[in-house]
C-alpha cells in the first residue's frame, strides 16, 4: 500500500516509531487491554441493569452509546490496539498516526477531568463497579496521557487537524441533544434540558467546549516545545511501510 504523499513529504512518524522500544509497545498493549476489559465490563453492567428494568440488549447498547466516556474508551481501545499490534491496514495506520493518537488522548484526558471535577460527587460505586468506574475515568486517562508524554514524538500539527479534533465533541453534543429531544434522556446533569432548560444547557455546553479548547491548547503547546524527532529514522521507516 502506498503512503499518502503529504505524510511522506513531511517525514511524519507513525506510532510506534521505526525501532519501537519494548516499553512503548508494552505500555500501549496494557492501555489497550485495560480499555477493552473496562468497556466490556461496563457493557455487562449496563445490560444487567437495564435487563432488571425489563429492557433488552439493544436498549442497553443504545444507552451505552449515550455516554461520552463509553465512546471515548472504545476509541482508546481501538487506537492503542493498533499502536501495540501495528497492523499494516489503512484503519490500523490511521489509528496510530500521532495526530489521531493525540486527539484520542485529549478526549480521554477531558473525560477524566470532567468526571472527577463535575460528576464524581454524584454517586459512590462500590466493589466491582467502583473498579470499573475508576478504570474508565481515572486509570485510562492517566495512562493515556503518560503514554503520550513518554512515547509520542513531536509531529507537524496543522490548523486543519486541530479543527478536526473538535468534530468529535461537537457531534456528540449535537446528537445527544437530538436524541434527548426524542427520548427525554440526557446522560449528564449539566446538559439535562428537562431540568435546566435550553438556555442554561447552551451556556454549559459552551463552557465545556471552551474547556476542551483549553485542554487542546495545552497538548498543542507541549507538542510545539518538544525536540524534533530524528528525520532520518522517519525516512528510513517509510519504504518499509509502503511495501506492506
TrEMBL record:
The keyword S-adenosyl-L-methionine does not apply. Keywords: Membrane, Transmembrane, Transmembrane helix. It comes from the Bacteria. The chain crosses the membrane at residues 21-41, 67-85, 97-118, 138-155, 162-182, 202-222. This is FAR-17a/AIG1-like protein.
Amino acid at each position: 500500500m502506498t503512503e499518502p504523499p503529504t505524510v511522506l513529504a513531511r517525514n511524519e512518524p507513525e506510532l510506534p516509531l521505526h525501532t519501537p522500544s519494548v516499553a512503548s509497545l508494552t505500555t500501549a498493549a496494557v492501555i489497550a487491554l485495560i480499555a477493552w476489559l473496562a468497556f466490556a465490563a461496563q457493557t455487562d453492567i449496563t445490560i444487567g441493569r437495564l435487563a432488571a428494568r425489563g429492557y433488552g440488549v439493544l436498549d442497553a447498547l443504545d444507552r451505552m452509546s449515550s455516554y461520552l466516556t463509553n465512546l471515548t474508551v472504545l476509541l482508546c481501545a481501538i487506537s492503542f490496539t493498533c499502536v501495540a499490534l501495528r497492523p499494516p491496514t489503512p484503519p490500523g495506520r490511521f489509528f496510530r498516526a500521532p495526530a489521531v493518537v493525540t486527539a484520542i488522548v485529549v478526549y480521554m484526558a477531558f473525560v477524566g477531568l470532567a468526571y472527577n471535577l463535575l460528576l464524581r460527587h454524584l454517586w459512590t460505586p462500590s466493589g466491582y463497579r467502583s473498579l470499573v468506574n475508576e478504570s474508565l475515568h481515572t486509570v485510562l486517562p492517566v495512562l493515556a496521557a503518560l503514554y503520550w508524554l513518554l512515547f509520542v514524538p513531536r509531529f507537524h500539527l496543522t490548523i486543519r487537524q486541530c479543527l478536526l479534533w473538535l468534530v468529535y465533541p461537537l457531534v456528540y453534543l449535537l446528537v445527544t441533544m437530538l436524541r434527548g429531544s426524542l427520548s427525554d434522556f440526557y446522560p449528564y446533569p449539566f446538559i439535562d434540558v428537562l431540568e435546566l432548560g435550553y438556555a442554561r444547557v447552551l451556556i454549559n455546553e459552551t463552557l465545556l467546549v471552551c474547556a476542551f479548547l483549553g485542554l487542546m491548547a495545552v497538548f498543542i503547546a507541549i507538542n510545539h516545545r518538544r525536540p524534533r524527532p530524528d528525520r532520518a529514522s522517519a525516512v528510513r521507516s517509510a519504504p518499509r511501510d509502503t511495501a506492506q
